[in-house]
Amino acid sequence: MRKHKILLKTILTTLIFVLMLTTLSFAASMPETYTEDDVILLAKVINAEAGENCSVEHNQLIGCVIMNRVADGRYPDTISEVIYQKDQYGCLNSPRFKAYPSQIAIDAARYVLSGKAYCPSSVIYQSNFIQGKIYKSFYVSYGSYGTTTYFCHG
């Protein structure tokens, strides 16, 4: 009887661990490698969306949202297709997107693509308005005005 209780406890512990892993970001299902073009494209969106006054975490979450969409069946399955999907990223025509990304944005993109950045896989929205249950929000001041970016569960 004691052996059965130990076995049951081991099985339950393993199941809990597996369930915890499934709530992590896309990282568990990511391919192991990305091209330099993927890194730069992701960094360009991070650069354009975040601006210069945003935290490292804010930069990383922008990348995580894109990668969570890549892993989500409701969205295209490549970085490029997610970014260029119609009406998704308004920054695509901005000078910040067209320019070579900052080192901060490149570092954030590499960190996200390495699978080290944490963000629940259900966080697929990033906007200046609330689109679901808020995971995190960031207020960024630009001198006389500011804006809030919301990262929301979908």
By CATH, the superfamily of the domain at 26-120 comes out as: Cell wall hydrolase SleB, domain 1
Q: Number of helical segments?
A: 6
Helical/strand content category? alpha+beta
Q: On the 0-100 scale, what is the average pLDDT?
A: 85
Percentage of residues in DSSP E strands: 5-15%
Instruction: Report the major sheet.
Output: 3 strands, antiparallel
Per DSSP E runs of 2 or more residues, the count of β-strands stands at 3
pLDDT < 50 runs, ≥5 residues = 12-30
Helix content: 40-55%
Spatial shape: globular
Order of helices and strands: HHHHHHEEE
Secondary structure layout plus pairing:
Blueprint: H1 2-22, H2 36-50, H3 56-71, H4 79-83, H5 95-98, H6 103-113, E1 123-127, E2 134-141, E3 146-153
Antiparallel strand pairs: 1-3, 2-3
Helix pairs in contact: 2-3, 2-6, 3-6
What do you see in this structure?
The chain has 154 residues and is of the alpha+beta class. It has a domain at 26-120: Cell wall hydrolase SleB, domain 1 (Arc Repressor Mutant, subunit A, Orthogonal Bundle). Helices cover 47% and strands 14% of the residues. It is built from six helices and three strands. It has helices at 2-22, 36-50, 56-71, 79-83, 95-98, 103-113, and strands at 123-127, 134-141, 146-153. It has a three-stranded antiparallel sheet with strand order 1-3-2, covered by helices on one side. β2 and β3 (146-153) form a beta hairpin. α3 (56-71) crosses α6. The radius of gyration is 18 Å and the shape is globular. It starts with a helix and ends with a strand. Residues 12-30 have low confidence and may be disordered.
